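Before the break, one more example. Copy the sequence into your notebook; we will annotate it together after we see the structure.
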Amino acid sequence: MTRRMIIDTDTAADDSFALLVGLLHPDSQLEAVTIVSGNVDFEQEVENALITIEAAGRSGEVPVHLGARVPLARPWYEASAHGDGKGNHDFPKPRQQPSDERAADALVRIVDENPGEIDIVAIGPLTNIATAIALDRDFPQKVRELRIMGGCDNSVGNVTAAAEYNFYVDPEAADMVLRAGFDTTVVTWTLTLSHALWGEPMLAAIADIETDLAKFFTILDKPNLEFNGTVGIVGSTHPDSLTAMLLVRPDLVRASSRRFAAVEHHSDLTRGYSLFDDRPARNAPNVTVIDDIDAEGFYRAYCDLLKAGAKR
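Here is what the structure looks like once it is written out:
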């Protein structure tokens, strides 16, 4: 079944890998890309998204909309794991230019024109999604499903002991979005470390795939692989591409649970902490959390994508 999606992204390497799912998977129809302040400099994020669209052979076919350049109430906080988000490589300047329509306006318009048909894959801070809610309070009910990469399942984060990056950067937006009434599914950093961590043998097998996309993947992945080695993570992490892939390959999900989720945005010590509570008598569930996936199946599915090349 084809899933019509918008990918909301702070485009670094794994965000680009998620974009490739939307651009190339036979069961996806990518309606738009919206850019949000996050991993790297905003203008670099825009360029990275356009480079990825070009690499997929889809230049000029999928609009890229510029969104929030800062979080709702806080300064921008740069990630340190991605270099410039494109493998510190000099790619040719992309031919496609961004759309003049702002991201939040595009989100509201596309969903309003297609109520119940559009999935949103949010793989950066949730500032654009929160802004769209402010523009249209009925927006959450019109979205088919919201897929969020964010938070930790009551475990240690990748920015602080309490918080994962996307929720840490804009905790006010994250909490607002989780409470807004979307049909929400969350892929956490916790799941990433156990099921979307690709070590050297897996990455070497990708490097041996003789396609331009596999070469593109290997170039972009290098800074994340190197950074992870400095913090004791053996391999590169793929939370964003996992989030996108599970939308078009729901058969890869082995277990999920309905829970209540909220994000801390008052305390400096626990800023961005994601509470996941599985006691419905205390808090009514508002999200589905992916608890287990077919990790080998995800890897194989992504390799197949890189082998197949451009979508026709």
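The mean pLDDT is 95. The first helix runs from residue 13 to 24. Try to locate both features in your own notes.
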